[in-house]
Amino acid sequence: xxxxxxxxxxxxxxGEAFKEDLPDVVERAMRSGISRMLLPNIDRxxxxxxxxxxxxxxxxxxxxxxxxxxxxxENYKEELAxxxxxxxxxxxxxxxxxxxxxxDYYWDTTxxxxxxEAFATQIEWAKEYNLPLSIHTRSAVxxxxxxxxxxxxxxxxxxxxxxxxxxxxxxxxxxxxxxxVGISGVVTFKxxxxxxxxxxxxxxxxxxxxxxxxxxxxVPFRGKRNEPSxxxxxxxxxxxxxxxxxxxxxxxxxxxxxxxxxxxT
Length: 265
Prior knowledge:
TatD DNase family protein; hydrolase; 9 helices; TatD-like; alpha/beta
């Protein structure tokens, strides 16, 4: 299946994983119909590589600015000051979202409260600059929904990226927020139950797709480095799940991505 325009809404095409062959990866993506790829920032240390990648391919690689929850520690206010400064006066031509932000309780909860404060603060900035949020939630979906609702006040939008939560959590996102859900290669994994409840829990009109490259490669590439050209595997799976032709699924995903990130068509 080929489509002329597909958008990877969350991919980390900067850093060591793509240091040696980024131009080849971008070329493969474009040949396979991936027209634009959104790059979330992690923290101050990741920004130089993000900046360099975007400057190489300014029409294709679109940056976001935010502080990732796993980079939140006792110095998180200094990191947030960097994010704030970039949103106020971008080093690059513009930012397309506030991300990657959110909560991660999987590895460590030492800075749980700090993560929540950093997330709420960046939601405020998303409202101020009228930018969508790219939201990371690992072992923290319920808290992330609560903070998104309280701090967002219905005045911003975003995507719960690479969703791997439960049917109940997905239904909460659908019924209690205006956010989208990012579906990654996880939906193709044999041990994932996401395909069992996805179509019953949220409509296709609220779904976008992503690679989260270099992570979460879809089957049959699982275990290898992920890249945007593999997005077609996710579209094929969604076609089965939603019982719609691949071309129809691809067209709807494009509409959703353009709407969410305020992109030109």
